[in-house]
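Continuing the series of single-chain predictions for the mutant panel. This is the parent chain; the variants come on the following pages.
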Amino acid sequence: MDKLLKLLCEDARLPVETLATMTGDTPEGVAEKMQKMENDGTILGYRAVVDWDKADREMVESYIDLKIAPKKDFGFDEFAELVSQMPEVKSCTLMSGGSDISLVVEGRSFKDIALFVGRRLAPMESVISTATRFVLKTYKKQGHVVSATNTDYREMDI
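Parent structure:
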């Protein structure tokens, strides 16, 4: 992976000057590379990794696996493009194995997600079946430990 991309993935708030020092490039060169990667879609955005359990916002995350029956002129890509436009859908991927499409969906409550599946996803013509799993607790997210306790693991037999 490109060194600049790796550094941005670890901390997208690093100043251009710091990134330049770390990559051996000039600040102008780094800024130009970042702009090029933003323009060509390599860099899709910059986001904070949030522990929502500590924030003042109710949010439920779910993983929804879909089996779909592609139709003529409406295959996996077209289905994924349509579903990806739904604001509740945070991630949409084509999978191998037991499901065809896997979604990460967020809502304010379990009921919100159940209604989303029942009223928006399941009735779609291509959908054969859905399987929904709810996140109960997150221990690590995008490389960051969250909701950590003060347990001293050095004394545990792991």
